[in-house]
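Q: What would this chain look like folded?
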Amino acid sequence: MSGNNQKNVLVTGAAGFIGTHVVRELQKTQDEYNIVALDDLSGGFIENIPQGVTFIQGSVSDANLITELFTKYKFEYVYHLGAYAAEGLSHFIRRFNYTNNLIGSINLINEAVKVGTKCFVFTSSIAVYGAIEPPMTEEKTPHPEDPYGISKLAVELDLMAAHSMFGLNYVIFRPHNVYGEYQNLSDPYRNVIGIFMKQIFEGQPMTIFGDGEQQRAFSYVGDIVPLIVQSPTIPKAQNNVFNVGADKPYTVNELAKKVAFALGKPDHPTVHLPPRNEVGIAYSDHSKAKSVFGDSPHTSLDEGLGKMASWAKNVTIRPLKPFTAIEVGKNMPPSWLKYLDDD
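A: My prediction, written as structure tokens:
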């Protein structure tokens, strides 16, 4: 349990990429928070958990475990980052996607309502918007095009319903294309910058789906995590949805050149694969977040890639960990099907 004046807070997905950054940001005010870190280690790593937090290995889809934790700790704040965030792969793992990303979130919301949690912070995704005209703004009607985005939007709607029915306060963030230190470099389905870096380290060409003219605004993790952490303490943030991330979009072709340069391999080759089903141009407007949180740090893509490259050069590249429980193999990109053949 916590000390007399500490707030019990839960961070799900705490051993994963953004989750470990949230835990470390919370630790900067160590006397204020007693941090419970939950992760099933399916995509995160135990060594990402810093000392001084209570680590629980388990899944948000385990309803009994979630009930036990909320009963014991009566969490004041919940930071829910636990999800399998493979947008493209979600078409082929629909049951897993909805069980882990949607039902798991509902388990948390149920218990937060029961114990009177003061604020539930949820990291949604730009994926909820689908292919609407960019820049995406919070006022536009979402139209997700993949099961991952659908599950994120469903959780958003459930939080709004829980607020209306039970008074559960929430803050929803829609980050996009986040990169930085502690990203899993061995995930073949997501985090294109990590994929590029691993391919460069291993002397393989960087693989680009389609013509590479897809546009994304790649967002450095250190720019968005402070907003997530402080949001429960900002009254104007309560019961609102915010886009967070970088403003300037780049093509994947441009990104590949910048990643290669950051790793000191400016002439590293690329290879183009058949296109996959994905939104062509996606980036967000962040005026609403700026109006509530003020001007936040803005790390340029070159600077952020430099920071990530310095970190990546000093970590052990883990063996590839493909997702083997594919539910639907039809229309899967051939470059992903090969992982099943190799298993």
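The two ends are 43 Å apart (CA to CA).
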